[in-house]
Amino acid sequence: DFWSSVALMTGRYHGAPMPAHATLPVTWAHFDRWLLLFRETAEEVCPPAGAAHVIERAERIARSLHMAVEDAALVGVRVAPSLR
Predict the structure, then answer these.
(1) Whole-prediction pTM
(2) Could you give the angle at which helices 48-82 and 28-45 cross, rounded to 10 degrees?
(3) Burial group, residue 32, by CB count within 10 angstroms (0-12, 13-18, 19+)
(4) Count of CB atoms within 10 A of residue 59's CB?
(5) Of 16, 67, 83, 84, whose CA is between 20 and 30 Å from 10?
(6) Residues 5-10: contacts with CB within 8 Å, 24+ apart?
(7) pLDDT tens-digit profile, the chain (84 residues)
(8) Among the listed residues 58, 57, 71, the one whose alpha carbon sits nearest the alpha carbon of residue 24
């Protein structure tokens, strides 16, 4: 449903991906690896224009999710000392 909504604008996905990913212990290396696998798969199963379309969106989503993860980590670092 998520990728149907992202790639085809179907509106099938109604979740919240940011909160689901923001607290995961991942680095840019994880996103980079995911993007590599995503690009390979998209180029294998989609026509060239379709692959380019979903890859561009995947790259944008990866950057956004990575920023959310980094922001959550910074908030955790700032909040933790005040909890003592």
Answers:
(1) 0.80
(2) 160
(3) exposed
(4) 14
(5) 67
(6) 6/54, 6/57, 6/61, 7/50, 7/53, 7/54, 7/57
(7) 998 999 899 999 999 888 888 888 899 999 999 999 999 999 999 999 999 999 999 999 999 999 999 888 887 644 434 443
(8) 71
Contacts of 66 (CB under 8 A, 6+ apart): 26, 28, 31
Written as six digits, the tokens of 40 are 């390979």
Q: Which amino acid, residue 10?
A: T
Length of the chain: 84
Q: Are 39 and 27 in contact (CB under 8 A)?
A: no
